From TrEMBL:
InterPro entries to which the protein is assigned, alphabetical: DUF4369 (IPR025380), Thioredoxin-like_sf (IPR036249)
Entries under Gene3D superfamilies matching the protein: Glutaredoxin (3.40.30.10)
Coiled coil: none
Domain DUF4369: 28-128
Annotated signal peptide: 1-20
Pfam families: DUF4369
Organism of this sequence: Pedobacter riviphilus
UniProt keyword list: Signal
Protein name as it appears in the record: DUF4369 domain-containing protein
Amino acid sequence: MKRYISLLFLFFLFTGITSAQEKKAPNFILKGTFSGKHAHAIFLSYKDDHGKNIEHKAYLSNGAFTFRGFISSPVYAFVRSDKKIVPNSPDVSNAVEIFLSPGNMTISLMENDFANAVLMGSPMQDEWIKLLTLYRPVNKIKDSLYKASFAISRGGNTPKNHVAVMALGAKIDKCNLQIDQIDYSYIGSHTNSYLSAYLLSNSMQMDMRLDSIEMFYNLFSQPVKKSVEGKAISKIILNRKAAMVGSVGRMPLGTNLDGSRFNPQTFKIDNYLLIYFWAGWANDNVYLKSVYNKYQSKGLKILAVSTEPFKKMWRDSVKKERIGMWQNIFSDPVANLDTFYNIRQMAPSLVLLVDKNRRIIGRYRGVNKLYKMDYNEEPLGLLDKKLATLISR
């Protein structure tokens, strides 16, 4: 929903799916009708109160289907048919996001037009439909900007076209900021809303600062905090705090360059350690090489953790960047980096300064104009000054 198009499918593709059989008695019924000729079954997916994914399958009978299940609170859900226009790929026209609520609901679906599905009986869905009216003026402008950008792109990647596309992209970014402000205003004024928790969870995907997340989360009522999204937000807050300055750092897990497993228990910190999260497209190797050469003899080590998606890319990047003198590992799995360290694949590099007791004493970010540093992060350029102060003691 909103602008998180890719998240529609990543939500279910990259997490395990639990059987639809639930132990608790059903507290919702979703009855639906389907108009079309090609589908044989409809699927309904959502998360339970433990954060696990539940998927139901209902076969069509004379164009009708029924789902029964248990949800501890109103939740985001995903409905799709077994018909795919393009095999082995997400079929947007036959998939739609909805919000389930306990109780009796109905939904009407039309083949190749799930975007216009009508869901009745869910208060959370009704709330979402009202919020969409606030997005509509901004989204209308965004749509026109995207169309203009695509039209220019079709003319070829010339310098003139590139400048024009970049200018339109900047305007699209401003529209996204407007939508963010609509969300923040809604969250702050609807603290008893399960939709507010959903909006906050989505905002967290866009590098939202931890202090802002906590501020909004603390406004929520207890039922919202205990909801599926509320629990997920609480867990992420705790994990991010665990990687903040003053905490004992969680050592990453992964694979060494020679293919063996990295063992954090036997990895010795002589004096200070830099846990450095990087990738070929987001690194500060030139700066860190100078820092390493300056303080290596004083007991400084670097544990370089790759955020590359593939091992071959990682090994090629290590060779190209000439950083084999550091301890290099391929993170296992990469997806957990955001959970445990607040670092995303496409984010700027992150450096944690850790003392010999494995306590985080500094958190530094590489340069990226689009990234908003968290409240206890500093620019990477200040790392040298910090080390000079520490080692001179």
